[in-house]
Write a structure and sequence with these properties.
The chain is of the alpha+beta class. It has a single domain, classed as Nuclear Transport Factor 2, Chain: A (Roll), CATH 3.10.450. Helix content is about 30%, strand content about 50%. Strands 1, 2, 3, 4, 5, 6, 7 and 8 form an eight-stranded mixed β-sheet that branches. A hairpin with a 2-residue loop joins strand 4 and strand 5. It starts with 8 loop residues before the first strand and ends with a strand.
Length: about 140
C-alpha cells in the first residue's frame, strides 16, 4: 500500500500494526490477481461493506460482486493510511483509497478516489476485515 502506518497516526502493538499493514497489502495483491478465494479468506463470516450507490454488500454476496467486477475490469487498488489504531482484538484504519478500473474491452481506465474506513478484528487465523465504508467517486 502506498502509505504505511508509520506515515500516519499509528497506535497499538507493533506486531499488530505490521500484521494489519500486511493484510492491506495482501488485499491489494489479491485484487490485482483477481483471486476471489483469497479475498474471501481475508474477511470475517459476518463482514459487511458499504460503497456509494449500492446496498450493503455482505460476505455471502462478495463472490458474485467480485466475479462480475473482474469480468468487466482489471482492478488496481491502493490505500494510504492516515490513522491506524489497535484496541484489543479490534482495529480501525482510516485513509485515502484509490482505484483504477481498466475495462476489459480496452477503453480508457476509470479512476476513483475517496476516503475509507475499515474495521478489523483479530481471529484465530489472524486479522481480518469485518466492516468497510468508502466514498469513492470518479476522479
Amino acid at each position: 500500500m502506498k502509505g504505511t502506518a508509520s506515515d500516519a497516526t499509528a497506535v497499538g502493538p507493533p506486531e499488530d500494526l505490521e500484521a494489519i499493514r500486511q493484510l492491506f497489502g495482501a488485499w491489494k495483491d489479491a485484487v490485482a490477481a483477481q483471486d476471489i478465494a483469497r479475498l474471501l479468506s481475508m474477511v470475517t463470516d459476518d463482514a459487511v461493506f458499504f460503497t456509494p450507490g449500492r446496498d450493503a454488500i455482505r460476505r455471502g454476496e462478495m463472490e458474485d460482486v467480485y466475479r462480475e467486477s473482474f469480468s468487466l475490469y482489471e482492478l488496481e487498488q491502493d490505500f494510504e493510511f492516515l490513522e491506524l489504531r489497535v484496541v484489543g482484538d479490534w482495529a480501525f484504519a482510516i485513509g485515502r483509497e484509490s482505484a483504477r478500473l481498466t475495462p476489459s474491452g480496452g477503453d480508457a481506465p476509470i479512476r476513483a478516489s475517496g476516503m475509507a474506513i475499515s474495521l478489523l478484528t483479530r481471529t484465530s487465523e489472524g486479522w481480518k476485515f469485518a466492516r468497510g465504508v468508502n466514498n469513492l467517486t470518479k476522479s
